[in-house]
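Continuing the batch. This is chain 6 of the set; chains 1 through 5 are on the previous pages. Same settings as before, nothing changed between runs. Recording input and output for traceability.
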Amino acid sequence: MSNFNNIDIDRPRRLAKKGLQFWDILSIGVLLVTACIGLYFLVVYLNPNIFLNPLSPANLEKRLVPTCTITPLVLPSTWTPSATPYIPPTDTPRPTFTPIFTSTPVLLVPPTKTPVPTSTPKAPYSAKIDYISSGVYHPESGCNWLGVAGIVLDKNNAHHYGLQVILAGTLDGHTINNFMISGMAPQLYGTSGFEVQIGSTPLDSKGTLYLQLRDQGGGVQLSENIYINTYSDCSKNMVYVRFKQNP
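Output for chain 6:
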């Protein structure tokens, strides 16, 4: 008998049992990771402020650096100019030549009448000086104040602002060279008011300081040199000047 007779043709062939392979496990892991990522993005989309979202709007606001607020600069109520004007020195005229005296000839014709010299014109502005207590305008300073203040008026007693007021000379061995603008202190003295404080202790001086009024550009002198005094008396520690345009 042949060996092929023992083969059962009708019996189904058994398949060999095989376990999960490496690639099957890897595929399942990829599917699970993909599902988790999709679920995470869905949760973040529905609730952006959830603690799982490191880029949530709430966390972004906490990390923002606060912006600075610009504080505008405001000028003080009473502006004191710090610029010191340059006052050019006056030219000293050269001495003129004195001619040699000659003999006076006899004239048959009577000499002509000598004209009367004309009067020297006055400056456009004159000044009136008063010595008062600074407590009238600065009661908070008491006697700890020494300075000059005043106004400028035209011929119709209207305030004239924008003119330069020069204060120069020496005080207690120190050189003084200040300038003010009429209208710089309108709150205290009026539309053309001006003021400068030259010390915190009243001092005595006589004629070592002078005032001078100039035009807006400072090139034209509008008054003579007005010499002033200062006093250590607290009732006269402010020099109040009233410039008035001459008619």
